[in-house]
Amino acid sequence: xxxxxxxxxxxxxxxxxxxxxxxxxxxxxxxxxxxxxxxxxxxxxxxxxxxxxxxxxxxxxxxxxxxxxxxxxxxxxxxxxxxxxxxxxxxxxxxxxxxxxxxxxxxxxxxxxxxxxxxxxxxxxxxxxxxxxxxxxxxxxxxxxxxxxxxxxxxxxxxxxxxxxxxx
Length: 168
Prior knowledge:
By secondary structure, this protein is mainly alpha-helical. The protein is 61% helix and 7% strand. A two-stranded antiparallel sheet has the order 1-2.
């Protein structure tokens, strides 16, 4: 999934403000939940909308709450799109789409085009100012290993406490 720096760069490009604090808040559950952190703050929930609006309107002024909600929605959408792309390799192999072009009309129509482009074609498609490089080395595999390691560590700590209790 896009890392913090990437989410901030996308927000800055879209709005002129990086919303770093918002992106940190969105992904904070990762510290406790690992790869399952998206069970919190990554779903359209009224209570999160109200919390984000209230905080950002008070922090930056009226109207900033709605902007922060929009950036929150883009954040979780990009996370899910990135995950779908990574998972598609297993199902589609190298015959997967890596270029998505969306258009939204005021009347609600969605125009979308999918394509499979080589890396050099993607670079030719976008100008330098359109490029945001995600230099994270995270992958779904890496996140699984990190989560497993954290779960094992918690389990071992739990066993240690149980043995201590038995020996007392």
